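Check out a protein:
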Amino acid sequence: MALSLRHWILGTTLGCAVIVAAYLPPEHGPAAYQQPWEYRPPTPERQRFVALDAVRGRSRRQLALLEQRDAALGRAGTARPGTGTLLLEPALGPAASARLRAAFAAIWRELGPTRPEVAVIVTVVSDSAAARTISNDRIYYFLPSTRTGRTCLTLWSGVTWRILRGTGEDTLVYPIVRRMIGPCAFYAAFGIPGQPVERWLAARDFDLGFVNDWHGPPLVPATQTFPRRWLAQQVYGGSFAQVSCLAGRRADCHAAVLDTQPPEGDPSDWGRLPRVVEQQVWSNGRPARWLFRASTYLVDLLREQGPERFAQFWHSALPVDSAFQAAFGSSIEEWTARRQARHFPQFRVGGGIPLVSGLLALLVAGVVLAGGAYLTARRQVA
């Protein structure tokens, strides 16, 4: 007997009822969670105390930084422009000091010819009290100023325990020394940049020039290095301009690379000293602030365009986007979009259906259509 429309409706209704009954919650669920204590909001006095303690901590850190800066400038008073100086303390020991000096000398030679404009001083703080005060998870770069003169000074205390506990291998020492030199490498190789370029980079904490290995190989694309699920968490944890730039929208690439306003709630500008750039050494998987893989931006630009064009852009007195166009013959948003596509090839941005789910849905739809056609044909024959 052929099935009528009434049978189809009845069967569908019965199937839906079975599904709903299967997903009904149990009558007696687990007992509601009871907090073992009662939350009490902080009193106004407590809030004022916390605020004052934060100001006190920032003031102590700033004072310690200035003291360490003046001490380093006093110790390296004979540093000449165009040279690099590594200042170490006896507490590091002869073995660790020798490894650090060898790594610093090798990396300094790799930078190539330096301009006789800026002296680079890298200081390793090994005093435990000062290290705790200035925070060992950040590197501080004192850019050339009226106080430091034509000197780019680096200060870090986080290297101490890593070098002291090392086993003699250089696989960890060389990356650490490169981080300590940081953006001072660009000052050494190309001199003091034009004011628009320097203001732009300093306002972004030099996140575009944290990596200075322009003689080394380029980074492997992120899609070949990290799992796609982890990359998706990083991508969608960033700003809208970052995500839209990955999708190829050039206007948003322009906004992402030229933006200098930190995200809301970012503590990086709390208690900032003038002409001091702070870089967090280990990101701990946090999303990028402005641009994905920003740390190799200047290095990628230097590798692709060459040192002559890069120096023209570096010293330009034009606004950043105009200087970029004049030096490289391309707009900054076009080049940024191409760069992001190279670092994230075949990475789909936006909503989408996984391939397996799409094929399964097509298979189910095909089975339903074939079954309906077969039943219709049987009823017509009958």
